[in-house]
Structures are given as structure tokens and as C-alpha cells.
Amino acid sequence: MNITVAQTLEMPNAVLFARELEAALKAEQEKRKRFYEMIDEDRKMEFINGEIYFQSPAKYCHTQAVTNLSGLMLAYVRANQLGVVATEKMLISLSRNDYEPDLCFFRNEKAITFAKDQMQFPAPDLVVEVLSESTEKRDRGVKFEDYAAHGISEYWIIDPDTEIIEQYELVEGDYELLLKANEGILKSVVVENFAVPIRAIFDGDLIAETLKKLVAG
Length: 217
Known about the structure:
Elements: H1 5-9, H2 14-38, E1 45-48, E2 51-54, H3 60-80, E3 83-87, E4 91-93, E5 98-99, E6 103-107, H4 108-111, E7 120-121, E8 126-130, H5 136-140, H6 142-149, E9 154-159, E10 164-171, E11 174-181, E12 185-187, E13 195-197, H7 198-202, H8 207-216
Parallel strand pairs: 4-7, 8-9
Antiparallel strand pairs: 1-2, 3-6, 4-5, 6-8, 9-10, 10-11, 12-13
């Protein structure tokens, strides 16, 4: 259960609670500094609510979904000069946690501020997470809440086993489900006019034809 500020102020021990919280968060930030020192290019790592998570190797269906979607979106975004598409090793640093999403997109107004040697990045405009057994709880739980809290406008959750995609749009601070399907057309809210057949994300044989249509407009 989430406790609001108003509820906290009703607590007679609110000051003691705040002191304990401040001390806990201070200790957590020290651990976060150590996490930054551990980061390297060979390991996918995330810092979530004070814990460090190392990502295990992904299944073939997982990597293919990421590869297919990122290839389509990257080609489209570059052709139309819409911003930046990044996969997996881009560290998204929010107010408390650090994530490495499977795929994310930044509009130009954010992307033009990035430096060549930058290693930490702000909240993207779109995040895509591809589920695995080890990450599904976090992808649907803490990440779902954290991405919404930090104003990420669109969130896709892809299940590579069932080949179902869930598309969420941020509306007044909360995510609303726009689409849950394993076929049909997936049209992005934030990537202008980007629309792809859902089957192309899971079937590599459809990539060439889909890519040709995307780039041709």
C-alpha cells in the first residue's frame, strides 16, 4: 500500500518516521554510488530500491523480439529524424533507481542534450521491456510505477513466449492500457506515425517487407 504525504502527517510519530526514512535513503545512496563504480560495458545491471540486479543471459525469443523491434524503430526514427533509439545498455537514472530497458526512445528535445561520453540518461519518452522469468515481476511492478511517476509517456511490455504486446499510455499520472494483442497493428503514441504489424516483432521473415514500408512512408 502506498502511503501519501497527507497520511504520513496524520501519524503521531511522523517526525521519527521521517528521520528513519532519511537515514535509510542516505545509506541507500551510498550503495548507489558503489553501484556506479561497478558498472561496465559487459554486464547489464540495474539498481532498484537499494538492491543491485544482474541480468542473466536472455532466451533466443527474447533477443529476437528486441532485435526485430529495435531494427524497425531505429530505421524509422533515423529516416524521419525524430530522436534517438537505444537498446539495453543505456542506463536510465531516475530519482531513486537506475534501469537498463530493453529498448527506449528519446524525442529530439531530450536527445540533443546528450554528450558523447555521457553514461547516465534521463527518463525517455518511450520504454519497452521484454519479459523474462527473472524480470517479469519488476517489469510489471516497480518499473511500471516508477516509469509512470517520472513521466514516461508510453510503456510497452512484450511477452516473447506468448507473443503478446501490452501498450500503455500515461494519462494524468497513471498508465492506461491501450492495446493487448498478438496480431494487428501497433501504433506508437510518442514516435510520430510509427506503426508496425505485431507479427513483425516476432517473425524475422516479415522484417524486410515491414522496413521497406516504414522507410517509404
